[in-house]
Amino acid sequence: MTTVGNQFAPMSVSTLKENIAGVLSGAIFSGKLKPGERLNESQLSRDLHVSRAPIREALQHLQEQGLVMNSPRRGMFVVLLEDDDIVKINSVRLILEAEAMCQARTKMTPADEIRLIELLERLEGAQLESPAIRARYDLDFHQAIWSLTGNPYLERTLHGLTAPLFAHAVLRTLHSETVRHIIDSHRPLMDFLQRRSDVPPHQLVAEHLRITWVRPER
Q1: CATH code, domain with 109
Q2: How many structural domains comprise the chain?
Q3: Is residue 1 one of the residues assigned to a domain?
Q4: Which of 39, 92, 159, 181 is the residue whose CA sits 20 to 30 A from 59?
Q5: Distance between CA atoms of 164 and 160, rounded to whole angstroms?
Q6: Selection from 11, 80, 9, 10 nearest residue 39 by Cα
């Protein structure tokens, strides 16, 4: 079994669960923890210098986010997506994210717009960054849109759906031209939010997802 390794500093007790979840999610997004890798509570407890109780709580939190899956009688594992899983996730994401785009467009304030532009420009400048950093910036941009809906249920559902996709995307080897197309596909989303485009949001999201994933509209 591959372990995380003794590379983590001791953490503050006051935010222990959150810190552990943050460290582990960071390890998943960076590829240090691989899809399908078993997350052993005892080993993580030793590596992170904490008891098993907050480790268990953090893993449950990551399970709710869709980054960790619980296999009965086997334990917790980093989520592993098959092609069929990706198709099913994207078919739901397409519907929900199109709805989020509509709601965000009606509620976006000038301050929100400035923040989104900053996040988009950061992503657009990340072509030469590592896949982990690009995925983080990409997710940050989408999460900022979802937060504008004012609907925590929609926001949480989208995060739970997409977190495994973004973690999975980190491990994919993409041609630099494809990376550029993926990054550029976020600009039409921003144009829609700024009311510069009247392309239907379902079509916009489908075209955005289609660059990375095969036929998301299925």
Answers
A1: 1.20.120.530
A2: 2
A3: no
A4: 92
A5: 8
A6: 80
Confirm whether 123 is domain-assigned. yes
| Angle, helix 152-170 to helix 16-30, in steps of 10 degrees | 40
Q: Do residues 208 and 116 both lie within one domain?
A: yes
Q: Containing domain of residue 45, as a range?
A: 13-78
> Out of 7-11, 56-60, 186-190, which region has the weakest mean confidence (pLDDT)?
7-11
Give me 62's structure tokens. Answer: 């990551």
Q: How confident is the model at residue 216 (pLDDT cuts 50, 70, 90)?
A: low
36 — alpha (psi -120 to 50), left (phi > 0) or beta? Answer: left
Q: Tell me, yes or no, whether 135 lies in a domain.
A: yes
| CB 172 within 8 Å of CB 131 | yes
Query: Which of 24, 12, 9 lies closest to 57, judged by CA?
Result: 24
pLDDT digits (tens, 9 = 90+) for 16-34: 888 898 899 888 877 788 8
CA 110 to chain CA centroid, nearest Å: 26
The number of angstroms, rounded, from the C-alpha of 74 to the middle of its chain's C-alpha atoms is 25
Strands (DSSP E) along the chain, which ranges?
38-39, 68-71, 75-78
Mark whether 150 and 124 lie in a shared domain. Answer: yes
CATH number of domain containing 17: 1.10.10.10
Please classify residue 5 by burial: count the beta carbons closer than 10 Å to its beta carbon, then call 0-12 exposed, 13-18 middle and 19+ buried: exposed
Examine the pLDDT at 126 and tell me if it is beyond 80. yes
Please report which helix (H) or strand (E) contains residue 34, including its range.
none
